[in-house]
Amino acid sequence: MPNLIQILPPNISNQIAAGEVVQRPASVVKELIENAIDAKATHIQLNIKDAGKTLIQVIDNGTGMNEEDALISFERHATSKIKTSEDLFHLTTMGFRGEALASIAAIAHVEMKTKQENQELGTFVEMEGNVCKNKTPIACEKGTSISVKNLFYNVPARRNFLKTDPIENNHILEEFIRTALINNDIAFTYYNNGKLIHKLDKQNLKKRIIDLFGKAYNERLLPIEEEIDAVKISGFIIKAEYVKKNKSEQYFFVNNRYMRNSYLANSIDRAYQGMIQEKTYPAFFIHLNLNPENIDVNIHPTKTEIKFLDDKVIYAVLYAAAKKSLGQFTLINQLDFSLDSSFEFTPLKKGEMPTMPRTNFNPDYNPFEKETTNKISYPKQEDIFEDKGVNIFTIEESFKTNYSNNNPEVIQFLNKYIITKTKNNILIINQERASQRILYDKFSSMDFADISCQQLLFPYNHFFSPTHTTQLLELLPDIRKYGFAIEYQKDGSFNITATPNEMNSDDAQIILEDLLFELNQTNFNSPSPKSQKIALTMAKRLSIKEGKQLQDEEMLGIVGQLFSSSSCEISPFGKKIIHKLDMEEIDNIFG
């Protein structure tokens, strides 16, 4: 009887290994750039075609390899980084397992050109499915160029699981950003389908952040520094007024290696408590330098998870350093000690009485009453019952006919609910959700040919993150339909000169950021139309919020428009809008 257990052939075992190392094109980008960094390159160029499915090319000016090393580099567990088991606990290089090139070559066509400084000719190697198809001397520059073509050509199931080009490009861009942030002493160039995306010179960390995330960050960054025996902390955090609704710009680096660690990230978030709203998060770019013996990076194929010997100490130091930076720089920068404290005054003449300053005030002004930021107007109740052929909400009968009189009573409860009545029922309406439904119906049924907009008195430029910039460029045609006048500028910013009539310039900026965030929470290329997502985002942002005190006329307008909407019971986000109390329920309460 034949043996049931067999040794897998190299081509299959390499494909299995590739499944851990190469999950998508961005994984290849990461491995190749890390190899270039370990080769002591001072300039690295990344070329991408068709989101990495057709071509991923990394060119560096590092040390290069001789012919023998070039061939061995495609073997599994072939590495120049470690020689003994002890070396695993003193790692200073990016790669060390020797699996990357073997894994990549197992699922793609790979071409390598490499040359050392003291060689007259370099070496050209062509691999296909871990088989060397060609090896020949070649004239080339010092360093290494690796081209990965037709990724997953022999694993069609893996290729079919790849996302759309915009999504894969975003993953590649994010990998590029992570690597470029921590290696600011290296120049980088990034081309996508022949278009220059980034050209980064050798520079300090702050300049690198500004080049990657936009000029606006020049005024937003606060330095963070601390050093004890266990760890040295350096980098930048963001000013409290510039926090975001997501954690997309939170970057930790440990010994020049990107790391994910929600526990340590919480130490920075916690330092902002009391300064920012709930569910908002600060951006940060923080380097941690530790003794390699006190960390373990060999726990995950992507090497983005790191174990610490004592992460509680690091947490405490990070928290203290962030609090110190926020307290020191946000307070001092607001105080101007350069002003002359002396002032001029006119002395009184003998016998002249001083006159008290006169102050005009409005006795009805309430400083604690917050104005709404939107300009949405709700018509008077008597204007909203015109028959427009819309299906009216029917809990029992139509809203219009069930009112006890032509001017129904409305009251507001806790600045959150509108309470009104029909002949036989009491209706409790969530004012924010009702407003969302009204606005969503308006925006989703707009006739784009008749859309109106308002020119901004002070047009402004806004920078988005690289990932969001790519997405926003694709969304521009849809966004413009709603009345936005927005153009992409050469410096990487977006110039906003006009907005829909319903919003102001502050709303416009936040709506664009919210839209990009919501798209990333789900799927940037999901089947639902982008126009629907824009309508949802605008409705959410411009709706009347809980806590807003309303006048009777406003409440009547909301109630009337709600009952003429497409679905007055459910908000566009699937939440309940109305709760009905009938006479029987009320009687039962009192037994």
From TrEMBL:
Residues of the MutL C-terminal dimerisation domain: 410-550
GO biological process: mismatch repair
Signal peptide: none
UniProt key word DNA damage: yes
GO annotations of cellular component type: mismatch repair complex
Keyword line: DNA damage, DNA repair
Ranges where the DNA mismatch repair protein S5 domain occurs: 209-327
A molecular function GO annotation: ATP binding
Pfam families named among the record's database cross-references: DNA_mis_repair, HATPase_c_3, MutL_C
InterPro entries: DNA_mismatch_repair_CS, DNA_mismatch_repair_MutL, DNA_mismatch_S5_2-like, HATPase_C_sf, MutL/Mlh/PMS, MutL/Mlh/Pms-like, MutL_C, MutL_C_dimsub
PROSITE patterns tied to this protein: DNA_MISMATCH_REPAIR_1
HAMAP family in alphabetical order: DNA_mis_repair
Protein family membership: Belongs to the DNA mismatch repair MutL/HexB family.
Protein name from the UniProt record: DNA mismatch repair protein MutL
Organism field: bioreactor metagenome
Designated gene of the protein: mutL_8
